[in-house]
Amino acid sequence: MRKGEQTRQEIIHKAASIFNQRGFDGAALSDLMRATSLEKGGIYRHFNSKQQLAGEAFDYAWQQALETRFAGTQEITNTIDRLKQIIWNFRDRRAGVVQGGCPFLNAATDFDDGNPALRTKARRAFNSWLGRLRSIAEEGQSRGEIHPGVDPAELATLIVTSLEGALMLERLQRSPEPLNIACRHLEQHLDSSVRAKKSKAQREKT
Amino acid sequence: MRKGEQTRQEIIHKAASIFNQRGFDGAALSDLMRATSLEKGGIYRHFNSKQQLAGEAFDYAWQQALETRFAGTQEITNTIDRLKQIIWNFRDRRAGVVQGGCPFLNAATDFDDGNPALRTKARRAFNSWLGRLRSIAEEGQSRGEIHPGVDPAELATLIVTSLEGALMLERLQRSPEPLNIACRHLEQHLDSSVRAKKSKAQREKT
Question: What's the CA dihedral at B89, B90, B93, B96 to 10 degrees?
Fold first, then answer.
């Protein structure tokens, strides 16, 4: 990697935790300078605008969050068990996420109006989160593990809204309860309503 | 009501829709002056600070939201049906809510850090929302309508986090789907896992 590109990446990584903790408006140039140990010119040599830097910082933070949530799940063959692990990863694996917590939740609430470019990024992040869960549900259906009556897109939306909603309340309440309740509920829902019922023959075989 | 008190209430009502749409920092004095048709002195004769006005505006907006969500539900005798109606009210009855949407969601995301007094208001709002749902669940258990294994506080938390999380995504996506999915899911959950199973004798009687 060329030196310039390496500096650029370092700025993105450091800016990501500033934007993720303080929001777009709240992230001051002085914060960015302190975090990167660069002057204004040293930062903006690599980016056209604060918005461009915030956008790339968001992409990086979101990539890290998705990798953390899906870590170690590809190896889980059964798709119901894989979805469960993703749900528990959401609660338990936060060390890999850029400081400031879920970048999608931050973006969805911070970029709500006012900043269309960043809002578009938050929407795309939602769709990528949704898309990965939906494709697991589709795989589960094609393998007969997930009940054919389940709508994969609905299931994905339910998981994302439950987890992100609970995370929002965890922050407000400074209590783990909302997220614990959401995770347990989703797990039960997967077991009782999403998992395909085994036929009598299958049950006798196992 | 004395003239001064009447003016004070009018300021609160008008300020509520400004704060609820723009957030605490986003609500400019010029917005508040335009909405109330008063000069700065005319507004702040009645309030010590922007924070005091924002606090009272929030209390008013939240009161309106709760009344709207629980409207027409007290008459529903069966507690499962009452909870369902509250869920559908959340989705469908928005005309009575102060402009800008759910004040609690706005407060939870706007006041997240930085403003401890308003954050405390948001927490109290959450607890009042939760408390009213929990007491319906408790009533349902004491009347044998709700399964004794259900934890009323957990059920209340699940309903609030699902609805508020879905509302947040509805806003981001500008799509009714997340909230539709959450409402349908909660309804099914109430029917399949929360409602007490009728005994054989009861089933035969009906």
Answer: 120
